[in-house]
Amino acid sequence: MTTPWNHRCSLRMQSMRGSAIRELLKLTENPEIISFGGGMPAPEVFPVEAFRAAADRVLDRHGRNALQYSATEGYRPLREWIVRQMARYGIESAPENVLITSGSQQALDLLGTLLINPGDLILTERPTYLGALQAWRAYQARFVSVPVDDDGLQVDLLEEALCAGPKFMYILPNFQNPGGVTLSLERRHKLIEFSDRYGVPIIEDDPYGELRYEGDHLPPLVVVDAERCKSRPARAIEPGYYDESQPRNGNGRAYMRGNVIYLSTFSKTLAPGLRLAWMVAPVEVIQRCVVAKQGMDLHTATLNQAIAHEILTGGEEGEGFLMGHVRLIRDVYRERRDVMLTAMRRHFPPGVTWTEPTGGLFLWVTLPDYLDATELLKKALEQKVAYVPGVAFSPDGSERNSLRLNFSFCTPEKINIGIQRLGDVFSQAIEDHAVEMARSFEPVLQAA
Amino acid sequence: MTTPWNHRCSLRMQSMRGSAIRELLKLTENPEIISFGGGMPAPEVFPVEAFRAAADRVLDRHGRNALQYSATEGYRPLREWIVRQMARYGIESAPENVLITSGSQQALDLLGTLLINPGDLILTERPTYLGALQAWRAYQARFVSVPVDDDGLQVDLLEEALCAGPKFMYILPNFQNPGGVTLSLERRHKLIEFSDRYGVPIIEDDPYGELRYEGDHLPPLVVVDAERCKSRPARAIEPGYYDESQPRNGNGRAYMRGNVIYLSTFSKTLAPGLRLAWMVAPVEVIQRCVVAKQGMDLHTATLNQAIAHEILTGGEEGEGFLMGHVRLIRDVYRERRDVMLTAMRRHFPPGVTWTEPTGGLFLWVTLPDYLDATELLKKALEQKVAYVPGVAFSPDGSERNSLRLNFSFCTPEKINIGIQRLGDVFSQAIEDHAVEMARSFEPVLQAA
Question: Three-state SS for A264?
Fold first, then answer.
């Protein structure tokens, strides 16, 4: 730490800390450790052969364009595909509403640049996605949070947090990372109503929406908001949806002008190694993000966008590819979730509870409140099993006795072994605590 | 402009402006316009077939890894290749000194995060790379600049600028973008001496170093600095090179601990559509940049890194691929530069001067000082030819009568036609000015 750069660090950089948890999790690179820590898709479900064929066709047919600089907004045919795909879920947009980002993480960073002044307050769920906290802490944001339960954000506790004056809300409505919980339809309507009443817009992060293993698809917040806005006349400055003063796209639809910015990604449905995600937002938000993105990385890799577009449209199944592939992913992950839940029922001691997600990649475990999941991680690593302690997902340092488990990455065999090991660690910790408690009473008993 | 997001913009975002010049240059998407505006490589030199073969091998042999999440630092084999490649140019480093970035633009953004507090002063060449100005203006940096001449940065004018107290210097020593000029060996030594004496470190941006069309390779600043540091004992906090307290890498070399951070890219030697570049820096700088990059995009696309590594090492020519391919690029660009210079001599009117670069992609044209290159761009576009006005590269709004021409992108035929058109525009403007001058004297003459 003696180079001339060290004492030139910006205040912003000084506020960023390498995470101690991340250091612990580096140990999981050891192949002997069964890791429920990452958020990685199962490599077995990657459509490798389809990628190989798509890369071959792209480089064969328009290789020069795929290797050249391209527009900051993203590859137009891919943005058009996204518009068609979003429409299947009721999201009305035009390509001008879509920005391709280098992973969802970049979308979060862009929104940080766009919206956050140092000290600004952001409303999140508790727990919430650790990458959002990391991105926005770099902009010196503060957080106010509302807890989730099995039906997602507890909207009946929302008003108090809204009264603190947050600039926007950050919500993961489907199979939330890390909680695994899903916001109920009734709460979606209430949330949008509060958003409108208090004038606090929403960033909706939906990386897992398509990975539902049972039950019915629920409308995204951006759709609930649009329906609400359409049902009454627009005011001058307000969370409206249609802006008749804006140009219309080729389909004759007005551009989106909503109270909700919607984020999604190809990381869970195609492959995370592409770093391809997207933002759907009002045109003015996209335009400003384009200016900011120019300074960040000029544009997302052309080659990856072209390959993704080819795989999504150009194979034998045409535009049916993704639907078929997602069905395969669902089958694999549903089985792994079931294996994990069954093993937990068998091996986890009384006093430990968990969520039972209907989709996504994660579930959330709550230990007795006298246990510290970060301390226990060291013992778990000794037993060659890993997770992420809950405090990493906490905007306020709470969640010390909880943890996140990923069920998508490990094979069913490893899930069984890993959960058994974790159960032993938890049982031992509970027993140790009981012994310690008993000991603390010994002098009392002896004195009696 | 009536959505709830608009009035929530951060101060940082409000300080970023969409560039009027960029808007003008959007017109160059019209294929009828001959554009010397971009900084694009010739698509004819992209090794498309090698990319196709490499993508095929990567996806065939280790597709699952190439599609998965990967380390923020970058793909280790690619970092090891970079260490070997840098060593050919005298840069001693270890993989721990190398960070893969999503294009050089991201390296500039990362260094902005790492180093710049609002109001900090940065010393640049004048003119300098527009992407650096854009990245660092977003951090509310201020600039002090030193003009370049045919031998690069005028180091005899450096001390006055250093006395203003810049946090670091940003230097493009080889075939500078936009000037096309190269810093002479003598000046490299003087620059490093000043850097040491004033304690102001350097960011060396070297995207074009390998694209030299004649003359001898000059040592990078990072090497000149290292040699200077090695020749005398290290102080406690100082711009030293070897830090004996740091661990050593596998090759037994000490990690770099320099006064110069070195940036380069695959955009000009392989393809810009990959968005692959790298930073060579002291370990502590890399570690901090890794923390910042996690919040920005988690990591650069795994697939692209694996394909780049495969193309650089895995084909028939093995590690000889790049050298052979760069030779081809040099031949193509040398010819285009020569065609452009010949056409300029023929078609540009007296009073217009230009640089004669020995490498790179750009040259710099200076018009008579009564002409405004931004105004003239409109006339050039009417004649279906484009360039970037010099003011875009100016940290202080100067360079109004200059402009940048790119000679790598257009074919020789188009270069000839485009330069002829530009010559006509410049000649007409000079003539118009002469007529206007004459007219302004008319009343005087009539009165006499």
Answer: strand
